[in-house]
Every structure is written in C-alpha cells, then in structure tokens.
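Task: sequence design from structure.
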C-alpha cells in the first residue's frame, strides 16, 4: 500500500475496512529513508516541555510526505501531552507549512483554537535553530487510603459517590443526572454538593475529597468538559472553571481535594487492582477516553486525549465531525466505530436510534452469534492491535486496561482475542512487553469513585 510515495507493508487488515492504513506503519516506513534531522518541542506550562527528535527526507520528491508526517507528529504531541506553543527546528519549507496548518485559517484551526483556550494562552508555532530541552513534571497522586474520604465520579449519564474510611468503602450511591442537557451551572453544582453530603452522612467527618470527572483539568480547574456542553461561555468562565473547588470548600471548608480526568482515575484504579504501574487505560464508549499512570505510579498531567490522536493514514479515513480532521481515534475505538462499520457488515441500523441504542443492536446480534456482528468486532480488534503498537511508541506502557461499553459482552472478548493474535504476529516485540487486561472483580471492588477518594494527600 502506497501513501504519498511511501510504501507501507502490513500483514493484517480489518475485514470491513481494507483501506485502513496504520499510522504507525506509515511512520516506520517513512523513516526508513529519512535522514534530515527535524526536532519538535511542545510547551504546555512553565517548566514543562515535551520534545521529539525525528527526521524528514528534505527533498522536493517527498515534500508532501514530509509535511504530512510532521503534521501528524505535532497533532499527536498536542493531544497526547497538550500545549500552547510549538517549536520547530528543521527544514524551512516544512516548518512554514506546519505553521500554516496550525493557524486560525489553517487545516488545524480547531486544534489552534482549542489548545489556546484550555491553556489560556495564544497558540503559536515558532521556527527556531534549536528546540528547548525536555522538561516534565509528574504528580504522585492517589493510593492514599488513610482517613475519612469522599470519592466522586462525574459521568455523562450518572454520578457516583463513595464514602471511604481507611481504604474501605462504607457507602456508595449512583444517581442519574443530565449534565449535558443543562445550561444552568447551578444544576451541576447542586448535584455535586448533594452527592458530597450524601456520602458525608455516612462518616464521622470528612478529611479529603477526590473527584474524577470527564474533561480537561489543570490545577483542579475545569478547562474543557462535555459535561458542561450547554453552559454559555460567560457562565462557564464564571461558575464552571472552579465548580469543584467551590463545591468542596463551600461544603467542607479548607480540606485537601484533587480533581483529575476520569481516564487517569480509571488508569489509577487499574494500577491499584493490578498492584503495578505503567498502565494505559482506554475506555471505548461514547468516545475514546484514556488515562495513564507512569512507571513511578504518578499521573503525568498530560491530556491523554487519544480520541483526537490520529491512527489511520488512509486518505479517505472517516472525518471527526467536531475537529474536522480524519483518521483520529474516536472513529475507531468508540461506539462510532461499531456504527460506521455496520453498513459494510450488511447491518442496517434504524436512523432514529441514538448511538448507544445502535450499539446495543449490534451487541444483541453478537450475543446471537451473528457473523456480521463478529466482523465488526474483528475489524476493531485489528484496528486496536496496530494502534497499540503506535501508542506504545509514545507511552512505553507495560499494561493496557480496556474498558467501556464496546468492550462488554462477547464482542469485547472477540475484539481482544483478535487484537492479541495480530499483536503476536505483526508486533512480537510489543506483544512481549505488554499485558492486555479487562476489568476484573478486584478492579470493580476498587471502583472509579473509590479510586478517586484516594487522590488527595492528607495534610500533616
């Protein structure tokens, strides 16, 4: 398979998507004959710099391939680690093209606006003679079990809370709510406080509160989150950015708290259940959510927004409606992946059904051993194997915890089996280093809200 003059050889193709071109495979083939140094650095905060050293061809013949490759690397770094400033050191023409891509009117205008907003700093791309040095800051967080703690997990369809005393959950509740449909931030605030008070009623005191929530959180502040989708920007800035901080301090006063992305808390819960570190958690549900616990057991503070990290180099890859980009993880590792593959499998889904309902239809067919549904899960299993090799290049993880509705039932089992087979055959080195796991009973006992309770460290 050839792309932009680069010949890419792969053994395994998804049966329902034969044009799928693994980005990791493209990258490896591209680099075989690329020998002109090209360096990239992404700045995300004071004292935090992600640096990547690579190569381009630097010839007119491979100019388009050079630009495409660097564009995909920059995009990956931005959504993996986050940042508001990109430094480029290398081929001038390629640098100029990337600066044009990541501009208000460029192909990556969405990324330009998004990163500038969440980091509250104008986004820019700079060409330099030498990029800054790598600087990273990880945070030792979680696994604190002592004392009386509240763990809160804010989901799109329900909110969960646990009261935890010295590591043992003494009370848990799950309440249905509709955060994505409400434009009044007081609705969200009142729901959060109600959960806190419900858990507090089952303990003699509250020493700390840990919060797991979908979205991007920097210094415990909400920078972007789909839970507050309908809240107007003015209200978001005034009442949502510090909503969890206010909820804790208004209810309990000056006690320790921590607000962490739910993907990172899932990875933490997985690390706690596995009694190990270096864990990447991937949840395939409404979107592709992810979190990472590093080899030291720390949360890195990276974005880990794998939904927007490119995985498919095919020119006709499916477009993500929100970002306008193609070939990104959300269309391969979520209910969207099941829905997009259904027509190719010969399954017609009622257009009036919600995405979640469409997924249930396919899951029902899978439970009946329908071979059409099996092809869908086989295809996603091939996607996953190729993509885990790509993710491993960036993370170097030891364990992968696979979560979410897409992984449930017989479909999830088949998906995992196919993924393992492809990894073994096509990526033996990665396969030898990685343990793939599904949630077990121990993980369920730890739970998302119970793991969240362990986030803050008590003050001496």
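Answer:
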């Amino acid at each position: 398979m050839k792309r932009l003059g680069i010949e890419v050889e792969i053994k395994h193709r998804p049966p329902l998507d034969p044009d799928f071109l693994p980005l990791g495979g493209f990258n490896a083939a591209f680099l075989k004959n690329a020998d002109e140094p090209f360096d990239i650095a992404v700045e995300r905060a004071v004292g935090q710099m992600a640096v990547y050293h690579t190569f381009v061809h630097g010839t007119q013949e491979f100019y388009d391939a050079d630009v495409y490759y660097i564009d995909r690397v920059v995009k990956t770094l931005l959504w993996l680690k986050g940042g508001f400033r990109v430094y480029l050191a290398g081929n001038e023409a390629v640098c100029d093209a990337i600066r044009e891509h990541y501009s208000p009117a460029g192909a990556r205008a969405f990324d330009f606006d998004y990163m500038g907003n969440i980091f509250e700093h104008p986004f820019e791309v700079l060409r330099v003679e030498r990029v800054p040095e790598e600087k990273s800051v990880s945070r030792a967080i979680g696994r604190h079990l002592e004392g009386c703690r509240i763990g809160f997990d804010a989901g799109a369809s329900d909110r969960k809370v646990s009261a935890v005393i010295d590591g043992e959950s003494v009370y848990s509740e799950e309440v249905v709510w509709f955060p994505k449909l409400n434009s009044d931030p007081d609705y969200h605030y009142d729901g959060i406080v109600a959960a806190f008070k419900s858990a507090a009623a089952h303990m003699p005191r509250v020493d700390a509160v840990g919060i797991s929530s979908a979205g991007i959180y920097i210094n415990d502040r909400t920078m972007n989150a789909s839970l507050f989708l309908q809240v107007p920007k003015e209200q978001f800035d005034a009442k949502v950015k510090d909503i969890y901080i206010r909820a804790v301090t208004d209810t309990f006063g000056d006690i320790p708290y921590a607000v962490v992305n739910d993907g990172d808390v899932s990875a933490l819960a997985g690390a706690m259940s596995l009694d190990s570190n270096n864990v990447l958690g991937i949840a395939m549900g409404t979107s592709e959510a992810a979190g990472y616990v590093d080899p030291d057991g720390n949360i890195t503070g990276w974005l880990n927004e794998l939904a927007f990290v490119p995985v498919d180099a095919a020119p006709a890859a499916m477009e993500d409606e929100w970002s306008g980009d193609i070939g990104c993880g959300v269309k391969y590792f979520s209910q969207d992946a099941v829905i997009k593959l259904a027509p190719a499998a010969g399954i017609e889904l009622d257009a009036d059904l919600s995405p979640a309902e469409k997924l249930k239809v396919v899951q029902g067919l899978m439970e009946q051993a329908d071979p059409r549904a099996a092809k869908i899960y086989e295809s996603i299993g091939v996607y996953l194997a190729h993509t885990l090799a790509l993710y491993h290049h960036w993370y170097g993880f030891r364990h992968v915890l696979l979560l979410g509705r897409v992984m449930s039932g017989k479909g999830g089992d088949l998906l995992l089996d196919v993924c393992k087979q492809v990894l073994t055959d096509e990526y033996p080195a990665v396969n030898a280093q990685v343990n793939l796991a599904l949630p077990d009973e121990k993980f369920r006992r730890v739970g998302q809200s119970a793991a969240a309770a362990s986030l803050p460290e008590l003050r001496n």
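The two ends are 61 Å apart (CA to CA).
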